[in-house]
Structures are given as C-alpha cells and as structure tokens.
Amino acid sequence: MDTGLVTTLIVVAVVVVLLVVVGIALWSSYRSLMSLTGRVDASWNDVATHLQRRADLIPTIVETVQGYATHEKAVFADVSKARAETLSAGDAPSASVAEGHMQKALKSVFSVAEGYPQLQSSQAFLQLQSELVETEDRIQAARRSYNGGVRELNTKIKHFPTSTFAKSKGVQEASFFETAEPSAIAEPPRVQF
C-alpha cells in the first residue's frame, strides 16, 4: 500500500475520532445543562408551592389573632400587603423582596399575639402556629435546594463548552432566592408561648 494513502487514512481516522470525542463532550454538556435547567425550574416550583401554602395559612392566622387584637389594624394590613406581594411574585428576585416583607409582617403578628394570654392558649392558634413553622421549614429547605441548583447552573453556563451553546439555547443565569436582609429568613418565625 502507498505510504501517502496510509498517512491520509490515519489523519482522516484521527480527525474522525477527534470529532466524535468533541461531539460526545458537547452532547454531554448540553444534556447536563438541560438537566440543571429542569432541576432549577422544579426547585422553583417547589419553593412556589410552599410559599403558596404559607399564603393560604396567613388569612386564618390573621383572623384568629384579629379576634383578640382588633385594634392592631396596621399590623394586619402589613400582613395582607406582604401576602399579596408574595402571591404576585413570579420570579426569584421579586419573591426575595416579598419574602423579606413577609417575615417582618409575620414577626409583628406574633409579637401582637404575645400580649393575649387567651390567644396563646387557644388550641386552634397553636395548631396554626405549628403548621406555619412546618411550612417555614419547608420553604427554607426548598430555598436551599433551589439556590444550590442555581449555583450549579450559573457555574456551568460560564464554563466551556457549555458557554458556547447556552445563549443560543436561551439558557441564562438564574437569580438566587435571597433577601436584602438575610437575617429575616435565617430563622423562621418561632414564637414560644
């Protein structure tokens, strides 16, 4: 066989192998990116579900406290406003702002409740408080999961080879679910009676 032909075949084989390896690496990166995008979306849906659950509990809590503390209209208005803001938040940045407002409003409601011994001993109120604490814990867990996925996704988008096709596929960096005051969400509102 002609040595020129053998050399050409070897070069072609090497190029084909390199193209296959590069293709597999790109395909793997693409699938990983799409998987992370799905994970972030699913995690956000989980956060939104728990935020909705808390928003559903709030009117009952407010109604219960309001039965004892009718003169605290400003506190109840703040809670209603924070609840509406939470329900209308469609993405992580707006939910982050709403979360800070919600935590402050809930702390105010429970501060008011501390002044009413009959309310503190009400079985219905204690049950609502327990449900709220459980929901807050779920929100925190979902937030950590979401933020972990966002961190991975944002890192992957910045690195080669994923960065080459992330923009063309419309994948952008996701926003973290944080608040301007991290201490507001560091610990769920726990009021011990």
Sequence-ordered SSE layout with sheet pairings:
Blueprint: H1 3-66, H2 73-88, H3 92-113, H4 117-120, H5 123-158, H6 162-166, H7 182-186
Class inferred from helices and paired strands: mainly alpha
Tally the helices: what do you get? 7
Helix content percent band: over 70%
Please tally the β strands and state the result. Answer: 0
Low-confidence stretches: 184-193
Estimated share of beta-strand residues: under 5%
How many angstroms separate the termini?
93 Å
If you compute it from the alpha carbons, what radius of gyration comes out, rounded to the nearest whole angstrom? 26 Å
Per the principal axes of the C-alpha atoms, what is the gross shape?
Answer: rod-shaped
Order of helices and strands: HHHHHHH
**Mean of the pLDDT scores?**
84
Specify the biggest β-sheet. none
Summed up, what is this model?
With 193 residues, the chain is mostly helical. It has helices at residues 3-66, 73-88, 92-113, 117-120, 123-158, 162-166, 182-186.
What labels describe this entry?
193 residues; mainly alpha
Written description of the protein model:
With 193 residues, this protein is mainly α. The protein is 79% helix and 0% strand. The protein contains 7 helices and no strands. It is rod-shaped.
